[in-house]
Amino acid sequence: MNSLRATLGIGLVLLPGVALAHSPIKGLDNFYAGLLHPLFVPAHLLSVLALGIFFGQRGPKAVQTAIIAFLVATLLGLAATGIVKPVDVELPLLLGAAVTGALVALDRQLPLPVCVLLAVALGLMIGFDSAQPQLSGRSWLAALLGTGIAVYLLLLYAMVFADWFGKRSWQRIGLRVLGSWAAASSLLVLSLAFAA
Amino acid sequence: MTTRTATLLMVLTLLVFSAVAGAHEGGGIAGGFYSGFVHPILGWDHVAAMVAVGLWGAFLGNPAIWVLPIVFPMVMAIGGALGVAGIPLPAVETGIATSAVVLGLMVALAARPPLWVAALIVAVFAIFHGYAHGAELPEAANPLAYSLGFVIATGLLHLSGIAFGLLARWPAGRLAVRTGGGLIALAGVGFLTGVV
């Protein structure tokens, strides 16, 4: 009987209800929403990760300027959402993801200005595509700040991973395969858009 | 309380906490990714051919081991684009089944053509596989998530083939890999004739 009680007890412990956590500070919910934004927009996620791997392949030191340029461009793009009317930039962004994925798959060295140009283009588009038109004031600022931080962290994570992981030849192949996946997925969706 | 009553009570208590049954795969990003991911895995003809690509790549060694899995998704995207655009491609299912026969035979016969020939054979079949996936892209909940799903699943099937193909380093493993290729070719014949 004791073992039955214990079993029932364990069974109930294994079936906990959902814990609904919320932010204790007003306005911070928008920050979290902004933080999660790039994770829920596949085009943003794909572009940032592909760019991060591309930078990692080149080596962070070699592309320092491009890394900073990406941050500045993302912040400018985010700020522009408060001034300029939103425009759908998903297709150019996917084109950027396809190009970046193809560059990762090819694993070719490119001149720094080209890397900077790519970083600026992607940063501007991701920032500009992260508009929060339903928000205003501090809530808007909190959401955009969250998005900016998340996008930049994602880039840094992917870059550090690629730099750390791509030491051996088979590891570099793995990174190139990831690039080919990003390019293939982006090209397919681009073709869908053009077919429509 | 008898043990029987206690057991009944326990079962009833646990039933109260039963989880929600999801009757369909859901939509949005997760649903799109899931549909795309399972698409190649649930089609045995796709599975056989993808594993054969990995096996053959591993069998041929460097650089085929990485060229084939990178070439495949890139060319598959072109096939997918044809499917999305609705451009008719004759005998798609036959092409997919034939890919299992030809690629399986290449492994079984330990064929070692020049790299460009191997890449060309794989690329031609990639168009048929991509076409089949791409034809379902417009109906996907999230096209980018769907295409990412099936590209990643395809890559993982390649990887499983490569992992098995690495056994070819040893004489007994070589026999196992060639036998695997033979079985894939046989399965391909089954797909072609409609037996499987």
What does this structure look like?
The complex is a heterodimer of chains A (196) and B (196). Chain A is mainly α and 196 residues long. Chain A has one domain. Chain A has helices at residues 2-13, 28-40, 42-58, 64-80, 90-106, 112-128, 137-165, 169-195. In chain A, helix 2 packs across helix 7 (137-165), helix 3 (42-58) packs parallel to helix 5 (90-106) and helix 3 packs across helix 7. The N and C termini of chain A lie far apart (66 Å). The mean pLDDT of chain A is 85. Chain B is built from eight helices and no strands. Chain B starts with a helix and ends with a helix. The model of chain B has no long low-confidence stretch (mean pLDDT 84).
Count of discrete domains of chain A: 1
Mean pLDDT of chain A: 85
Shape of chain B: globular
Query: How many individual β-strands of chain B?
Result: 0
Main beta sheet of chain A: strand number and arrangement? none
Helix and strand run of chain A: HHHHHHHH
Count of separate DSSP helical elements of chain B: 8
Largest interface: A-B, 32 and 35 residues
Beginning-to-end CA distance, first to last residue of chain A: 66 Å
Estimated structural class of chain A: mainly alpha
Summed over residues and divided by their number, the pLDDT of chain B gives a mean of 84
DSSP summary: helix tally of chain A: 8
Q: Which percent range describes the beta-strand content of chain A?
A: under 5%
C-alpha-based Rg of chain A, rounded:
21 Å
N-to-C span of chain B = 56 Å
Helix content of chain B: over 70%
